[in-house]
Design brief:
By secondary structure, the protein is mainly β. It is built from 2 helices and 30 strands.
Length: 422
């Protein structure tokens, strides 16, 4: 268990963390499919057999799987975005990729390295919300989620093989091999092509390190990380006719944030110049982030990180084309620290997990919000409270409504919302 006791200074934090670890109860049984690091380098030491818990304080005693009316409540009431569907508990537990289609939403699950699809009808905006139901039983799915890249879906298997499968149907093909149980990302490139990004381990004289790699179509993979740099997390997103890559190199004393573009030129993929767009401070163990694409001209990397020992914020870093060094960041403060602090985006909208207040025993909340073209965050309200959300996904359908998937090791919920115009 990892303890975050901000706003105490670092010496106290270290002492309390050591005492907490020494006195903890035996760890719970791991999930069926484990997270062996979510992209962290070997310098962090061996990982537990389960995904790292979100830790800002001890969760409330009733923070487990909701029952009865609470199972259907989702915490609505504070959000400015009208609830159109759900929150509907899903028959699976864990992550999924969301793909809006004409008339329905596809939830693509990772089933031991192969995609499995569930469809949910998309109703007209004026239709009354259906009454949520509770599944008779649920099943676990593989972590990480599959990733969508244009006409293909990519799934990571237990041994690290990355298989590309046509969304229209057909046999999958292995196109790369990454580190097992680390996140992958994908994006369409120049219309007909697709890119998958992943982390792979490399042995050095100082031990094992992780690097960011990308594979375009079925071509041999290309390294994204610069020589001498590693990568602990990455994301990809389409930007006009190219793909923007964002990756973190979390080290003991700092967190460089890298970006570069992948373009299609002269009949082949071209990996363009790397830039360190921001350098954060010492990372938390589960540091992650995501890309937010508002338009081809307005792309941001969102990284939740401690600004100092007293302040934890979601930092919004502008990604130019081509990326520029040392861009600075627009902070959106959290009441307290959180590790990890998941975020999912769709266009200017995002959903994020944060503490409700600054107290060490604060429950976690799921907050919906919007970014402006300067990268500043505006909250649209809390949509769910009191549970340790670990898996988030978000998508926008053809009617402009947002689909949000969230959950933890015990359950996953799906809802649909319509937000007011800007």
């Amino acid at each position: 268990m990892w303890i975050d006791v901000r706003p105490y200074p670092l010496p106290a934090l270290g002492l309390l963390a050591v005492l907490a670890v020494a006195c903890k109860d035996p760890p719970p049984k791991p999930r069926v499919h484990i997270d062996a690091g979510r992209g962290e380098p070997e310098l962090w030491g061996p990982r537990d057999a389960a995904p790292p818990p979100i830790v800002d304080a001890a969760p409330p005693a009733d923070a487990g799987k909701p029952t009865g009316s609470r199972a259907l409540d989702g915490g609505d009431g504070a959000s400015a975005c009208r609830l159109l569907y759900g929150p509907e508990e899903q028959p699976f537990r864990g992550p999924a990729a969301l793909r809006p289609r004409d008339g329905y939403l596809e939830l693509v699950l990772n089933e031991a390295g192969k995609p499995k699809t569930i469809r949910v009808p998309i109703a007209p905006l004026a239709a009354p919300p259906p009454k949520p139901t509770v599944p008779v039983s649920t099943y676990a799915v593989t972590w990480p989620a599959c990733a969508m890249g244009g006409k293909y879906v990519y799934c990571l298997g237990s041994a690290g093989s990355i298989v590309r499968t046509p969304l229209a149907g057909g046999e999958g093909k292995e196109v790369a091999k990454g580190r097992p149980s680390t996140r992958i990302a994908a994006a369409p490139l120049a219309g007909e092509h697709s890119v998958v990004g992943y982390l792979a381990a490399r042995k050095t004289s100082e031990g094992s390190t992780l690097e960011a790699w990308a594979a375009v179509d079925a071509e041999p993979p290309t390294k994204l990380s610069e020589d001498g740099s590693g990568a602990t997390w990455l994301d990809l997103a389409p930007r006009a006719e190219s793909v923007v890559a964002l990756y973190l190199d979390a080290r003991a004393a700092m967190t460089p944030v890298h970006s570069r573009h992948i373009a299609w030129a002269g009949g082949k993929a071209e990996v363009r110049k790397d830039a360190v767009v921001y350098v954060g401070g010492p990372p938390d163990r589960g540091i992650t982030g995501t890309l937010a694409v508002l338009s081809p001209n307005d792309v941001f990397g969102l990284v939740p990180i401690a600004e100092d020992v007293y302040k934890f914020s979601m930092l919004s870093v502008r990604i130019e084309d081509p990326p520029k060094e040392d861009m600075g960041a627009v902070p959106s403060p959290y009441p307290n620290g959180l590790d990890p602090a998941p975020i999912a985006t769709s266009g200017p909208f995002l959903v994020r997990v944060r503490p409700e207040n600054a107290q060490p025993t604060s429950p976690r909340v799921l907050e919906l919000g919007r970014l402006d073209i300067k990268g500043a965050f505006t909250s649209l309200g809390v949509i769910s409270t009191g549970r340790p959300y670990a898996d988030l996904a978000m998508a926008t359908d053809s009617l402009g409504a947002l689909w949000i998937l969230y959950g933890d090791a015990t359950s996953s919920f799906l809802e649909r919302r319509l937000c007011p115009p800007k």
